[in-house]
Amino acid sequence: MDYALQWLLIGLPVAFALGWLASRFDLRQFKRDSRDAPRAYFKGLNLLLNEQQDKAIDAFIEAVQNDPDTTELHFALGNLFRRRGEFERAVRVHQHLLGRSDLKTGDRDRAQLALAQDYMKAGLFDRAEAAWAALQGTAHDGEARLALLSLYERSRDWPRAAEMARRLEQAGGASFASRIAHYECEMAEAADARGDSGAAEAAVARAHAAAPQSPRPLLLAGQRLLRRGDAAAAVAAWDELRRQHPAAFLLVAEDYVAAARSSGHTEAAHAALGAALDRLPAVELLRALALLEGSPAAARLPRLLAQLQRHPTLSAAQLLLELPPQDWTPGAWAALRQAVARSAAPLQRYRCAACGFEAQRYFWQCPGCLSWDSYPPQRIDAL
């Protein structure tokens, strides 16, 4: 008994001493590792700030090898790979993060977001769609739904785009009414292309209900009515378009003339086009009026000269050049010269041969790249 007690008294101090030595060794190792990891991390950060991405990546890889459990280093490394266009390596880094069972929920969502961005940058849109879909219901829900909406637009999947836009609107974000109207109009045009008139009409109605202020449903409704042979209804739809959206009416001004002629509303159409021209001087309205009137060149010249005086543009000058020169007046030549000179002035530029910087006056030293004698003395005259 005394013998056992003696060994116990000797063994306890020895065990304590060994445990203390082991803890000191582990503590020193931990401090060394902790010191090495931040050093490699800050080295990579410094290289990144100095725009030395290759060396920064090497430093971050070294830091990750020293401390494979550090998620922030993985995120930094993956983002660097993506910025350099090394999408496969970025995907591997973020997939490795997602494969860790000890990853917190917030970091897991961040890794999923980074993976979705990798796929988007790489052009792997089917994989990107699945990655974005996995983020719905997380802290990145809004960003994920907007990305999915963009993907649906890119793939011209208009039904799913409309559904996603409505969900975004219901979530309390910005209004997507105008986009929804466009999606419905795209579906209407697709339905007309396959001969499904009923589906097309329903889609146009939904578009107008979604965004009553949008011009496209009215424009499309008039086009469908004219194709169906109901010219009077087409004129009525486009009259509403002209009152609400004068600029959008320019897209169908000549079709409006055709519908007015077919329905016997030429006088009303003439008055409407004249009033529209007074509010919005545009070449499209001039062409529509000339088409409606069928008048000789001499009768159209005064209105065209008035347009050139108010808005001396190349488009108006082109209309003047379409008239026989013998019908021109001295004022026509002056208006034509003014329109051409005004339109040509922005095209007459000097261009630096070193950096391409353009200016309307000549510089001996380029304001862009500071090169001397880099401007050829001859102006360029092109778009």
Question: What do these coordinates show?
Answer:
By secondary structure, this protein is mostly helical. It has a domain at 348-383. The protein is 72% helix and 2% strand. It contains 19 helices and three strands. It has helices spanning 2-49, 53-66, 71-83, 87-98, 105-122, 125-133, 141-154, 158-170, 177-193, 197-210, 215-228, 231-244, 246-249, 253-263, 266-279, 283-293, 297-310, 314-321, 330-344; strands at residues 348-351, 358-359, 380-381. A three-stranded antiparallel β-sheet has the order 2-1-3, with no helix packed on it. Helix 2 (53-66) runs antiparallel to helix 3 (71-83) and helix 3 (71-83) packs antiparallel against helix 4 (87-98). The longest helix is centred in the N-terminal third of the chain and has 48 residues, at 2-49. The protein is flat, with a radius of gyration of 36 Å.
Primary descriptors:
single chain, 383 residues, mainly alpha, three-stranded antiparallel sheet, 19 helices, 3 strands, 72% helix
Mind telling me the C-alpha Rg? 36 Å
The biggest sheet, with number of strands, parallel, antiparallel or mixed sense and barrel status, is: 3 strands, antiparallel
In which order are the strands of the major sheet placed?
2-1-3
| Total DSSP helices | 19
Secondary-structure-based class equals mainly alpha
Question: What oligomerization state is this entry in?
Answer: single chain
What separation lies between the terminal Cα atoms? 107 Å
Helices and strands, in order, run as HHHHHHHHHHHHHHHHHHHEEE
Which regions contain 5 or more consecutive residues with pLDDT less than 50? 29-37
